[in-house]
Specification:
The structure is a homodimer. By secondary structure, chain A is α/β, with parallel strands linked by helices. Chain A has 2 domains: about 270 residues, Nucleotidyltransferase, domain 5; about 250 residues, Nucleotidyltransferase, domain 5. In chain A, helix 2 crosses helix 3 and helix 12 crosses helix 13. Chain A is globular. The interface between A and B is large, with 52 and 52 residues.
Chain lengths: ~550, ~550
């Protein structure tokens, strides 16, 4: 029997990335990337005339089809493999990235009469213009004592589905009216591939306030938001939610024509980019936390019992791996921290030194920071430059740097920022543990995890835990390909369960980061200081950060 | 009768500056500056071989004579005035800047046998190598419950006279033994001019723990430091201390030959550079605080009663103006703050922008900072990059910046640092007031006061007080010239009291800074936040800064 392969498609913010993977080994045979022709639309609609307001971020669904049309044939060709040997396809997406369609699933923005209306397009995850609706929703939910708030750290984000839908209703009721379905883009792509609406439990759970036992919030709640939303679920969404790991359907004739795959090829239920990386590093049971580290960090963890952990971003049954509770937490400012620092705080002579050495400025700062002993700088920071997502869930918290002297050097501040994010991660880990969700092992994926050895060693030393690193530079795409193999099933040369799939296809590097006992001890002292400051400024003893934000808002 | 003139000589850290002033108007007719040929010696002795340890800073007394030899004839010539019309001379000095001499007043470093010993030279104010002695002195004084500590904010600085003397005894007992006198350089110059030892009350009071009623610390105390110090005052110092404003003597024949002045010209008792600026801006009575603003800020204030104000740097009767108590306070990091920021935190594109505009980077940052509304940055800082001199008197406190976001800009931090120093000044003002020393008016002198309009307006708005600015760019030299006129007396064409002298010779600019009521209100809110943080981190609620400093010290 010839080797079997699956395909994973990872839809990111700027481009789609497709990888072709050997099923029995997880070997990534070929990769193709296509940048979205329309990119992120945050100034104008495609007509170049219709201006978008501040905080908008749209995409064009045609771009998602273009990714399939170009990259799938490209990986087949690069790998020298025929479509017969592709047994399954999986996809993952940014989320909540959503769009309104008609009954047939045609995006409203494809229709001449709506093409000039911004609300007819895909609202990307980072579309932040539904903040008013999110605020109102949170206020009403809190007043009504809605239970679901606890599963989301007490707050529904403006990035999520219901605020975005409500914004459409508020600002473009005719689009809301016209929309027979309002879908995650992830599910919409699955609809294009299989002809079936097969909404996934991951986006439903993390982004649309759905719960496996309790379903969506009540009609009463939606009515309290706006009477026209009372029947939202029945009218625009669906109560049929499919668990991660399930088969969504098979490639249709039309999809076969689009992609070059064979009709009948198995397609997995869609997934979210961060969450799908979990099996890609081999995590298929509880106690293992994956950090996906980029501009921000997303923490995903499996559990066997539903616990309410203060400040988590969500807990969803079947949300990550079938049969498990999937917990999500996050730090909203990790890589962004360092970009801000380099853009705003690094003196010219450091830039020159980096140029002379022919290295990136981050590399230079990291090298200099790496030569410092723990505690040598005398600095400590609170990593709240972009608020605190977990444990405090408070966007009004701000960054703090303490311990400056006239001898403080840029690399010392740089290292203090790295350490602050590590303390933030430890705070999240301890909060999970204190609330009955065990964490025994740490994994990391994403650009920072792969490249920054100093940072990963600091994380190991601060948490006192070993850290294993994804061996795939494209863990989400690999994870999607794994779910493709699961959708195909053992009979077709795939797998019947995710544990088996992970055993063969998942990858972590052989070498891993080990905490150094004396470093752990040194960091324990510094972490104790972080924790005191964290609680003093974050838990209401001194709300100076919020008052300054209020003064700032009023000053304009 | 022809116009009369006086001469003021201001001995700074790098050079001496001499100004020739018209007595009846205060007009500065001519100025001459001479850089010290030996500069600040902090690496080698003049032999180029004898290496100095870390933290040493020496000067050569010959340089002080060279200043007189060159600059006095130069101002006479530039002004086209004969020595007959010079009625008096005054000088001021950095302090504590001290040296050992023989009985005749010859510096030990002038003698062949001692020229190779660093302890034979002048120890400059910023010689910091007597820290061990200062620490021991403070410990012993505290254990003995010595009253004098309260007059100096609880701590004697390593920069002051007794620690410096004790260092000589510790490290070079042969020099200590050889020294018949240990003098302030200021008093030594007066000795050269008049042939008389006429120690001044300003350096005695602020730097040598002398008190007009109580004298020096007791023999018991000195004995507790080291038995060999028991009779220090009688053996090396003097109990005869002369008040500021008194006449020290007259130019001797030798001094006339050196300077080109006439023998018999009146010479004033010496003074300290910051303190002598007080009458130069017209302050001759209580309630008026002068800020001398440079790399650090020195605050001088007159009072009619001796009060013990927490964290002041000293209170000295006759220390500034005869008949008044002179209070001193300080902020150890003002201009230094901004230098640190520019050296370590300003990105290359700002430097480029400044270059393109042909302006200094401080000017660019100030312009950008000036366009911000109060509170717009959301930032607040504690100005402790170099510890806190007043009110907390704690070198182990460190700087704090709070309120950072990913949109925080360099000019916002720059402005936050300016504001932090203004809050620090307000804290000092309020502490004086709360302890019964009135402050009704604010004056400022020094480079920052003269040049930085934004900063001075912020100070006016933060303190809610008008600020008058010295009209002389060389206020200390002008002040010295005023004391020269006082030494000459009315009969010789000068003045008999400092109030009269100030009426004619002192100068402030016509325009001054006025607090803007709505700015004052806005800053009241921010100052309240500063105060809370100041007390939380500075008064022992959370000693994180000290613990981090300890960890820092141990990390090395």
């Amino acid at each position: 029997m010839s080797k079997k392969y699956t395909i994973g498609v990872d839809y990111g913010t700027q481009s789609g990335r497709t990888v072709l993977v050997e099923v029995d080994s997880g070997r990534e045979v070929a990769t193709a990337v296509k940048a979205y022709p329309h990119g992120v639309m945050d100034e104008y609609l495609p007509d170049g005339r219709t201006k978008l307001a501040h905080d908008w971020a749209l995409q064009h669904p045609q771009d998602y089809l273009d990714v399939l049309r170009e990259t799938v044939p490209a990986v087949l060709e690069e790998a020298g493999i025929t479509a017969e040997d592709i047994i399954g396809v999986g996809i993952d997406f940014t989320a909540c990235t959503m769009l309104p369609t008609d009954k047939a699933g045609t995006p409203l923005c494809f229709m001449q009469e709506h093409a000039g209306n911004p609300h007819a397009y895909v609202k990307l995850w980072k579309h932040h213009a539904a903040q008013d609706e999110a605020n109102k929703l949170n206020r009403i939910a809190a007043e009504r004592g809605e239970d679901f708030l606890k599963r989301y750290g007490g707050k529904i984000s403006s990035e999520w589905l219901i605020p975005k839908i409500w914004q459409i209703l508020d600002e473009a009721p005719e689009i809301y009216e016209k929309a027979d379905r309002i879908m995650e883009a992830a599910d919409w792509v699955i609809l294009q591939l299989t002809g079936k609406e097969m909404r996934n439990s991951c986006t439903a759970g993390y982004k649309a306030i759905w719960h496996k036992q309790q379903g969506y919030p009540s009609k009463d709640f939606f009515k309290a938001l706006d009477p026209r939303l009372e029947n939202l679920v029945e009218e625009k969404l669906s109560t049929e939610i499919h668990p991660i790991g399930a088969k969504a359907g098979e490639i249709t004739k039309e999809a076969a024509a689009l992609t070059g795959l064979k009709a009948g090829t198995a397609v997995a239920v869609a997934n979210v980019d961060a969450h799908v990386a979990v099996p890609a590093v081999g995590i298929t049971d509880e106690g293992k936390l994956l950090m996906i580290m980029g501009t921000s960090t997303c923490h995903i963890l499996l559990g066997t019992q539903e616990k309410l952990v203060p400040g988590m971003c969500g807990v969803v049954e079947d949300g990550v791996i079938p049969g498990y509770l999937g917990y999500e937490a996050g730090q909203s400012c990790v890589g962004d921290h360092f970009e801000w620092f380099v853009d705003n705080c690094v003196p010219a002579h450091y830039i020159k030194e980096a140029e002379e050495q022919g290295v990136d400025i981050h590399r230079l700062l990291t090298e200099k920071a790496g030569r410092l002993a723990i505690g040598e700088s005398g600095l400590i920071a609170l990593d709240w430059w972009n608020g605190n997502r977990s444990v405090l869930v408070d966007v009004d918290l701000t960054g703090l740097l303490l311990g400056c002297t006239l001898l403080t050097k840029p690399e010392e501040i740089y290292r203090a920022l790295i350490e602050a994010t590590a303390y933030g991660t430890r705070m999240i880990i301890e909060t999970f543990r204190e609330n009955g969700v065990p964490i025994n092992d740490l994994y990391a994926a994403g650009g920072i995890a792969e490249k920054n050895k100093l940072m990963m060693q600091i994380y190991a030393d601060v948490t006192g835990m070993e850290i294993r690193i994804s061996a795939s530079p494209q863990a989400p795409a690999l994870g999607s390909a794994m779910f493709g193999a699961l959708a195909a099933g053992k009979d077709k040369g795939g797998y019947d369960d995710i544990v088996e799939a992970a055993k063969h296809m998942a990858k972590v590097r052989e070498d891993y980061y080990k905490p150094v006992p004396e470093n752990v001890e040194a960091y324990n002292k510094l972490y104790a200081e972080y924790k005191t400051l964290h609680d003093y400024f974050g838990r209401g003893v001194n709300d100076v950060m919020k008052r300054l934000k209020k003064i700032k808002a009023e000053s304009k």
